């Protein structure tokens, strides 16, 4: 029936429903609804940002000073005021626009109130955090817009689309990393993304790295390693061994060291700045990132499943020994190995080093993302590259510096997300729906969707589907109603 109405009533047509019937059916007072949402947002925002800021403080790896604690406390209060202000403003502008216009339309039921509330809220947050927030919501909004277009049959699924986005983005980012292009800073790698690149790919590929002195040739290095190994063997042989397991472990260690030294003593091209051989450079990077990825994945699984493990320790085996736990490790290991291997191969072919090599290597290495095709990661890298490119364009005088562009991007993206959360929540990322449900105390699910079905978007059915999929329930957590 909604489809029939949608053909008769245009999407821009207003609907004559009151804010009591749509925005806050649980109370007759707009003021009570706004204050109730605001109070709950304050408590939940404080909980969220306390966790974030305290974890950030702990990750510094040192005993916090009095100034650190003071700065963290003020940061928690400021971010809490920002997020709770968004919730309060959203409810306030929903009712206010209804009273001013006398009705709701497809823009005023969510998008415009969300945009206006974001305009005021983002000004409360620290300027240093606005870019990070804009990148995050733009990431989610991009995926949401794509899902909305796909649900309307405007676009279709693209196989390996995430891999293509990631590969192209990493090709551009690798070029910036190798060529040393900076973003309005004396430090070429002040941007966090470049620090991540430096950690993953190693410092030897960045611009300005001082070349290592010419190393001894392969024969000399191999002789030196053999001499050291022989000395160690003689020391071990003078000791009396009674433990068979220890002897076996020692023999395996000697074989490993001999194999490692053999790889290290292979040839290194004169254009390469890394130590030891190109083969060792590639293998070492692959193993290091594979181990890191596996450790992160296992640690994350243990933390997320800690309550289950405590109740039933036998489930730990099933949680740890899963094929999916290798996905992140394989992605990081293959990416590092392919990236380094391609660079060394290109230097051998062309006889010189070039930032263009990094672009090609990043493009090819990005195909390793097929082992971990996460849309959140690919879209984040895409938006990060767009931000860095825009800053470079401003610095070079190619594009103008638009004041407030970051804030506008944040507000527009937030409007898209709130619009989808109300009218077509099935197109919203489930994790973001859970966030909105949590921060609003369930109010986002309690807002009446029946009056909105007239636009033919199957809003009520979409809400029921999301509630089932995310295991969220339309029960209001009252503070003040």
Automatic annotation (TrEMBL):
<protein>
    <recommendedName>
        <fullName>Transmembrane protein 135 N-terminal domain-containing protein</fullName>
    </recommendedName>
</protein>
<feature type="domain" description="Transmembrane protein 135 N-terminal">
    <location>
        <begin position="18"/>
        <end position="149"/>
    </location>
</feature>
<keyword id="KW-0472">Membrane</keyword>
<keyword id="KW-0812">Transmembrane</keyword>
<dbReference type="GO" id="GO:0012505">
    <property type="term" value="C:endomembrane system"/>
</dbReference>
<comment type="similarity">
    <text>Belongs to the TMEM135 family.</text>
</comment>
<dbReference type="Pfam" id="PF15982">
    <property type="entry name" value="TMEM135_C_rich"/>
</dbReference>
<keyword id="KW-1133">Transmembrane helix</keyword>
<feature type="transmembrane region" description="Helical">
    <location>
        <begin position="37"/>
        <end position="59"/>
    </location>
</feature>
<feature type="transmembrane region" description="Helical">
    <location>
        <begin position="71"/>
        <end position="92"/>
    </location>
</feature>
<dbReference type="InterPro" id="IPR026749">
    <property type="entry name" value="Tmem135"/>
</dbReference>
<feature type="transmembrane region" description="Helical">
    <location>
        <begin position="104"/>
        <end position="124"/>
    </location>
</feature>
<dbReference type="InterPro" id="IPR031926">
    <property type="entry name" value="TMEM135_N"/>
</dbReference>
């Amino acid at each position: 029936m909604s489809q029939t109405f949608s053909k008769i009533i245009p999407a821009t047509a207003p609907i004559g429903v009151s804010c009591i019937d749509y925005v806050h059916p649980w109370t007759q007072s707009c003021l009570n609804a706004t204050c109730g949402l605001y109070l709950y947002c304050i408590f939940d925002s404080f909980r969220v940002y306390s966790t974030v800021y305290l974890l950030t403080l702990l990750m510094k790896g040192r005993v916090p000073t009095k100034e650190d604690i003071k700065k963290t406390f003020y940061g928690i209060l400021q971010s809490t005021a920002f997020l709770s202000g968004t919730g309060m403003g959203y409810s306030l502008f929903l009712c206010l626009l209804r009273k001013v216009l006398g009705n709701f339309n497809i823009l005023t039921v969510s998008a415009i109130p969300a945009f206006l509330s974001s305009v005021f809220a983002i000004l409360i947050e620290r300027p240093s955090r606005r870019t990070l927030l804009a990148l995050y919501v733009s990431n989610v909004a991009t995926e949401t817009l794509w899902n909305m277009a796909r649900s309307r049959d405007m676009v279709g699924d693209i196989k390996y689309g995430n891999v293509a986005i990631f590969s192209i983005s990493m090709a551009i980012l690798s070029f910036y990393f190798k060529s040393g292009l900076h973003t309005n800073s004396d430090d070429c790698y002040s941007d966090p993304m470049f620090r991540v690149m430096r950690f993953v790919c190693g410092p030897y590929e960045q611009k300005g790295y001082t070349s290592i002195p010419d190393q001894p040739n392969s024969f000399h290095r191999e002789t030196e390693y053999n001499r050291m190994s022989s000395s160690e063997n003689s020391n071990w042989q003078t000791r009396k061994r009674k433990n068979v397991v220890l002897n076996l472990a020692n023999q395996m260690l000697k074989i490993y060291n001999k194999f490692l030294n053999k790889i290290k003593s292979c040839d290194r091209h004169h254009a390469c700045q890394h130590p030891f051989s190109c083969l060792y450079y590639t293998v070492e990077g692959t193993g290091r990132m594979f181990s890191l990825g596996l450790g992160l994945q296992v640690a994350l699984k243990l933390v997320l499943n800690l309550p289950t493990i405590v109740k039933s320790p036998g489930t730990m085996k099933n949680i740890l020994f899963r094929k999916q736990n290798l996905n992140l490790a394989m992605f990081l290991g293959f990416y590092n190995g392919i990236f380094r291997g391609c660079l060394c191969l290109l230097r051998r072919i062309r006889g010189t080093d070039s930032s263009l090599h990094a672009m090609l290597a990043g493009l090819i290495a990005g195909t390793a993302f097929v082992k971990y095709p996460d849309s959140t990661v690919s879209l984040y890298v895409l938006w990060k590259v767009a931000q860095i490119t825009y800053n470079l364009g401003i610095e070079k005088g190619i594009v103008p510096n638009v004041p407030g562009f970051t804030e506008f991007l944040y507000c527009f993206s937030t409007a898209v997300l709130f619009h989808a959360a109300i009218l077509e929540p099935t197109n919203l990322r489930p994790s973001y729906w859970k966030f909105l449900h949590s921060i609003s105390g369930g109010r986002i699910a309690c807002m009446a969707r029946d009056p909105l079905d007239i636009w033919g978007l199957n809003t009520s059915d979409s809400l029921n589907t999301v509630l089932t999929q995310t295991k969220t329930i339309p029960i209001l957590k009252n503070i003040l109603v």
